[in-house]
Every structure is written in structure tokens, then in C-alpha cells.
Write a structure and sequence with these properties.
The complex is a heterodimer of chains A (114) and B (113).
Chain A lengths: L3 E4 L2 E4 L5 E7 L5 E7 L5 E9 L2 E4 L6 E3 L9 E3 L8 E8 L9 E2 L3 E5 L1
Parallel strand pairs in A: 2-11
Antiparallel strand pairs in A: 1-3, 3-8, 4-5, 4-9, 5-6, 7-8, 9-10, 9-11
Chain B lengths: L8 E5 L4 E6 L8 E7 L6 E6 L4 E2 L4 E4 L5 E6 L8 E8 L15 E6 L1
Parallel strand pairs in B: 1-9
Antiparallel strand pairs in B: 2-7, 3-4, 3-8, 5-6, 6-7, 8-9
Classes of the chains: A mainly beta (114), B mainly beta (113).
């Protein structure tokens, strides 16, 4: 079935370590997004990409990096520069050529910094 | 994108219609109203969206006031599986490479058996 796959579902890391979260979609969507969600709060946009080899910073990009080398893949690296990385991370995609359209979300990756 | 305001929480009896309000008084003429929901620790799920006219799909109905300053999401026969946080979003596609959806804190809907 078509959809978005995020991995790992749970991840623990020590302070000072970089960690990369995977996001893969087989929906042939142009646009992909990374959101962060903290307990009891809404989603905040980290990065987004409309086409391959291009991406834009969202509202809270500091301490994060992304790449978009392939249409179906949009990995997120949480670097040691991110001051408070413990959170629930959500990847999403949609058909970017449309001016409307639903976002499809993955099941999320929960990162805990020890 | 226009700011939306939703009540933080609501309860609804199982089998009854759940009516979730959303205020978007500053919405512009080209902004759509989108609804998503998020069941605990899962990714948000798209429900419905509309611009001016009322919309209905297999999941819900969306009623948008004539002045477009508010809307109501209706789940016609709520079940326990509808317990979730519901997000109302006002969104407009500006141009390719400059669009994003902003999620607020939503309404936590609890279906009571």
C-alpha cells in the first residue's frame, strides 16, 4: 500500500550525538515536510522540500539539517546543536503541484535524549 | 495564514453527533479550511477541507458560515475510535516553494461510552 514510512519509531541518544531520522514515501508526492511535536502542543514546522535537491527552513530549523537527494526520501538529522531535541517527530508529504491537497503523515519517530 | 481558535477540549456521547467549532475571523478569501485529527502517538490524519461551500465525505461534514469567519466539523455518529485531537487550519497556497501548514493546539475530543 502507498504511504509514508518513518524509522525508527523510538530512538534514544546521548547528549552530543547526532541522529538521523528516516522518512520514505511511495506516493510519488513532490512535497515533503518535517514537523516537531512537544507534549500537549501543536505541530511546528522544521523543514520542507517542494522538489528534489531543494528545501526550505521552517519555523524551528536551528539545530536540524535535511537532504532531498531522491523524490521518495527526506531524512532529518538532529544535530548536537539542537538544545532540546527530545520530541515526537512527524514526516509528511503531499502532491506539491496542487494548490490544495491533504497532507499524508507517517506514524512518527519519538526521540529521547538521555 | 490566518490564525484559528478552537476550544481546548470537548466531550460527546457515543452515537451522537460531535460538533467541533473553529473560529477563523481573519481568514482571507483564498484560504481553505482544513481539518485533521491525531489519535494519541500517531501521525495526524486528514479529514476534510473546504473553501466556501459545505462539504461532506465518508468521515465528516464541514459547515462554513457565509462570512467564512467560522466553521464546524461534524462527526455524525461518534464512536470511541473518534477520540482524538482535532486540528482546524486555515491555509492558502501562495506559490510553489512558499507554502506551509501551521498546526495549533487543537481540540481534544473525548467520546463517552
Amino acid at each position: 500500500d502507498g504511504g509514508i514510512t518513518q524509522s525508527p519509531k523510538y530512538l534514544f541518544r546521548k547528549e552530543g550525538q547526532n541522529v538521523t531520522l528516516s522518512c520514505e514515501q511511495n506516493l510519488n508526492h513532490d512535497a515533503m515536510y518535517w514537523y516537531r511535536q512537544d507534549p500537549g502542543q501543536g505541530l511546528r514546522l522544521i523543514y520542507y522540500s517542494q522538489i528534489v535537491n531543494d528545501f526550505q527552513k521552517g519555523d524551528i530549523a536551528e539545530g536540524y539539517s535535511v537532504s532531498r537527494e531522491k523524490k521518495e526520501s527526506f531524512p532529518l538529522t538532529v544535530t548536537s546543536a539542537q538544545k532540546n531535541p527530545t520530541a515526537f517527530y512527524l514526516c509528511a508529504s503531499r502532491q506539491g503541484a496542487m494548490n490544495t491537497g491533504e497532507l499524508f503523515f507517517g506514524e512518527g519517530s519519538r526521540l529521547t535524549v538521555l | 495564514d490566518a490564525k484559528t481558535t478552537q476550544p481546548p477540549s470537548m466531550d460527546c456521547a457515543e452515537g451522537r453527533a460531535a460538533n467541533l467549532p473553529c473560529n477563523h475571523s481573519t481568514i482571507s478569501g483564498n484560504e481553505y479550511v482544513y481539518w485533521y485529527r491525531q489519535i494519541h502517538s500517531q501521525g495526524p490524519q486528514y479529514i476534510i477541507h473546504g473553501l466556501k461551500n459545505n462539504e461532506t465525505n465518508e468521515m465528516a461534514s464541514l459547515i462554513i458560515t457565509e462570512d467564512r469567519k467560522s466553521s464546524t466539523l461534524i462527526l455524525p455518529h461518534a464512536t470511541l475510535r473518534d477520540t482524538a485531537v482535532y486540528y482546524c487550519i486555515a491555509y492558502m497556497f501562495l506559490n510553489f516553494g512558499n507554502e506551509k501548514l501551521t498546526f495549533g493546539t487543537g481540540t481534544r475530543l473525548t467520546i463517552i461510552p
